Structures are given as structure tokens and as C-alpha cells.
From TrEMBL:
GO molecular function, one term: sequence-specific DNA binding
SMART domains, alphabetized: HTH_ARAC
PANTHER family cross-referenced by the UniProt entry: HTH-TYPE TRANSCRIPTIONAL REGULATOR NIMR
Origin: domain of life: Bacteria
InterPro entries, per database record: AraC-bd, Homeodomain-like_sf, HTH_AraC, HTH_AraC-typ_CS, RmlC-like_jellyroll, RmlC_Cupin_sf
Alphabetical list of CDD domains matching this protein: cupin_NimR-like_N (cd06124)
Protein name as it appears in the record: AraC family transcriptional regulator
The entry's keywords: DNA-binding, Repressor, Transcription, Transcription regulation
Pfam families: AraC_binding, HTH_18
Alphabetical list of PROSITE patterns matching this protein: HTH_ARAC_FAMILY_1, HTH_ARAC_FAMILY_2
Domain HTH araC/xylS-type: 174-273
Amino acid sequence: MLPMTVLETPTSEKPTLREVRSNHRSPAGVHLVARDYPRGMRIDPHLHREAQLIYAARGTMQVTTPGGRWLVPPDRAVWVPAGLEHAIDLLADIEMRTLYFDLAWLKREQRYDGLTREFVVRVSPLLNQAILALFDARNTAERTELLVRLVMLELHQAEDSTTFVPLPHEPRCRRAAMIVLDDPTGLHDIETLAREVGTSARTLSRLFSTQTQLSFKSWCQRARIAAAIQRLSIDANVSVKQLATQLGYASVPAFSAAFRHVTGRTPTEFAGKDSS
């Protein structure tokens, strides 16, 4: 059975870049890079002078920033502002399509409003096709410019924070969060957790609320659902019933209700599975 953790440990042997399909700068202020990466590879913390939209046309990845962890299945993309340190873990074989946006172009085109922080967007069929079409070698400058503008319009309408697990900065709260993330399927009691990190349950509860904008219970549920999304994204054989049991839910309906509360969809709708 695959480990049920939000962060999957990379393989011990260093994976290699499989293929570089495209790497060119368009006349519309966007640098386009298409790469295929193998499952288990980790792109260590780094930052760019350009803002970027990271999209996996196939496969699931996890993007970690100082503010938290974003799980990015194929129907999501993540916006990373310029200068923001981030790491990427590949949880499955990935077909990555990245758009690097020149800051001067963004400001000149008055497209930078709301793009100074990281966020995940739900990739609609229209946004999916617009991103993929940008990598067509037959594109003219006019077609590329129109596609880039379409991508930017879609970005402002598709923000979705359901796959985000915010990480607290306060040291005790951060340690507690990492204990939960190491085992999101466990039934973590706040009193026990507080003793482990050297504080009181009341203080830890307050810290989670102020540092993550979620109650401890809601934060743990977000971590569990993120683990479920990861598993559904990379394991075609796992059933919703198996997941519900492994995550400690009393029944499939209870698990489905929690999943829908976080993501807006049931696990069956997310994965196109039958619930048995």
C-alpha cells in the first residue's frame, strides 16, 4: 500500500529529467517551458525573477511555499509570484507546462492586480486548451498574444483554495502541524499533541486559528482530504471505500460529506470511481 502522507518521500536514486519538449520565449512577454518529469523527483526550494503559472497536463504534484502546501492534481494549476521561494514534489509522472511571465509586461498590460500572492486555480476545459495551445510550434505572434490574454482572463475567475494546507509559522504550532502531516490518517488529539510540542491545548487551538485561519479540527480535516486527493490522483486501484476506512471515517457517506465540504465535489466525482 502506498504511504498515506501529504508529502511523498522522493526515491533514493536521483531521478533524471526525462525530456525537454519546449523552451522558448513568446513575443507576448511569456517564457514557455514544457518538461516531463518522473514520479518521485523533487525540485528543491528555489525562486524566479519572473512570475509563473505551473500546470501539469498529466500527473499530480505538490508545491510548497513558506505559507503552506498546495496539492495540484491535473485539474488545477498554481500561480507563483516572482521572488517567492517554492519547492515542487512530483507525486506521479508529470507532463509539466510552465508559463513564466515577465514582470514588466504584466505591469505594462495592467495584469498584475491580485497576482502578488500564490494561489491555485481550477483549470476549466477552456483554460486547459489555452495553455496547451500556447505550446503549438505553428503559433503566430498574434495567436500567441490572444492565447496569453485568454489565460490571464481565466486566472482571475478560477481561484480555488480547496487543495491548500496552510502551514503555521509559530514554532510549536509548526511542529504540531508537521506531526499531523507526517500521519494525516491518524486520530490526532489536541491535548496529546500540545504536550508533545510543549504547550497547552488551549494555546495550540488558538495558534492554529490565528496562524492558519482554520480551527485545529478543520485544519486536520484539510490535511486528511489532501492526503485523499493525493491517493486518488496517483493510485488508480484504490476505492473510495478503502480510502474512507484508511482515513478513519465511519462510513463512505461521512467521508464523502467531508470531501465535498473541502473540495466542492465527492471523491467519486473527483476520481470518476465507483464507491465499492
